[in-house]
């Protein structure tokens, strides 16, 4: 599933439901009618508030997942499998604690396997026995074949943690100039109607 343009407006609303409603994740946002609807939702959310923060994420207009250029689709799929997250069996404290232990161990083994295969640390018999080691070794060999750069364990590790199933992947939608202009027009329509924010932040 393709990542969609997104933006957010947050304030001091205590209701989780209301806060979530202020997050715009809609590839139809450039439609004026959609902008009007979002204005209605946001207006209700900040109604009665003496102050609110307007946060504008420029990824909404166009953004690129840098790891998509570094690795092939096949390599990315290997990373997804290696860093796959299995949640707790239930909501009990014991299940959550066990899940946390397993996940921590998984990430430690992945990091050690990467470092060892790239000779950052010695390759011990213990590391060789990790379930992930063989796949890590093959992945690094594949990256060596497709990339002119020397594989970097930290970059590979970061890429893996960005594409596990705990959160959506890093946003990746490269907009055309026409789409950016359309999105800017819609954003202007929305922001112009809002009451003056106490503070405006902008992330790049």
Number of strands: 5
Task: Characterize the biggest β-sheet.
Answer: 3 strands, mixed
Mean pLDDT: 79
Individual helix count: 9
H/E topology pattern: EEHEHEHHHHHHHE
Q: Into which percent range does the helicity of residues fall?
A: 40-55%
Relative strand content:
5-15%
Write the layout of secondary structure elements.
Layout: E1 6-8, E2 10-11, H1 16-21, E3 23-25, H2 32-46, E4 52-57, H3 67-70, H4 73-82, H5 93-117, H6 125-128, H7 133-146, H8 153-162, H9 177-193, E5 199-203
Parallel strand pairs: 4-5
Antiparallel strand pairs: 1-3, 2-4
Explain what you see.
The protein is mainly alpha-helical and 204 residues long. It contains nine helices and five strands; from the N terminus they run ββαβαβαααααααβ. The chain has a three-stranded mixed sheet, with no helix packed on it. The protein has a two-stranded antiparallel sheet with strand order 1-3. The longest helix has 25 residues, at 93-117. It is elongated. The model is unreliable at 1-30 (pLDDT under 50).
In short:
The protein is mainly alpha-helical.
Which labels suit this protein?
two-stranded antiparallel ribbon; single chain; disordered N terminus; mainly alpha
